[in-house]
Amino acid sequence: MPQILSDINDGVGTITLNYAAKCNALSEQLVNAIAATLNDFKDAGVRVAILRAQPGAKVWSAGHDVAELPIGGLDPLGWQDPLRILIREVENFAAPVIALIEGSVWGGACELVFACDMLVATPEATFAATPAKLGVPYNATGLLTFLNAAPPHIAKELLFTSRPMTAARLERHGIINHVVPAGEISEFTHDMAQTIAQNSPLAIGVMKEQLRILAAAHALSPADFERIQGLRRAVYNSRDYAEGINAFKEKRLPVYLGK
Ligand code: YXS
Questions:
Q1: What is the tally of structural domains in the chain?
Q2: Which of 13, 64, 135, 236 is catalytic?
């Protein structure tokens, strides 16, 4: 069973997450399939991409495939990590990517939808950022995705509580573009995509790339970068990091000792 499905219709490409057995967890295989499909979309001259789960999905995506997270000693979100690759694929795709969200969004998938260019969600959709729950030292570009999408206090509430937030709350803060009932969301999103597809792909592509460059333009000294990596290394080498992942795998609550 393919972990994603895709189709192209009138210049709009749709990728449907289809890995229900693992709640659409962002496995390396699924990420590679999305990257390959976005490449096919580029070759086909797709003007808008829609990223969605199966209609009626209870879980849009459960985030990073926890089974693929290293236990200690290795950066869990290094440059070559599938989630990091996926975020860059979405950000570097020359056309707008619209996240069509039904169901619950977890962890790295929360960052993934925030990295999309627009979000359309049903009223029942929820969004939970989970590094604190799992004990994962999120990485700087990942945190920047949250900061570019959400006001700092909302980003911190998401990241520090790990509690799901409602679509209505995120819409109120301008993070979600539209909240649309489940029965209408597919048509609504395709209509918006068609509107975009009628406009100049060159102008849109160059504006998307400029906005990406401007949003990522932060001065970070080598000393600060090395300090961040050192702080993160101390966390992913900690007893608590291993505890978070083992607790998830053993389906129990973690007990964090702060060491
Ligand atoms: O036990 P089996 O083999 O049937 O598999 C179960 C789950 O283990 C599996 N599964 C996952 N496998 C790998 N990675 C995942 N993230 C993941 N999530 C779920 O899918 C099968 C069905 O799951 P189950 O029985 O729990 O389904 P459910 O309907 O009762 O609950 C659905 C969820 C999504 C509420 C529940 O699975 C859940 O809470 N999943 C974890 C959500 C989460 O905390 N994701 C964060 C992943 S780590 C991440 O994204 C970043 C590294 S970070 O943490 O930094 O943000």
A1: 1
A2: 64
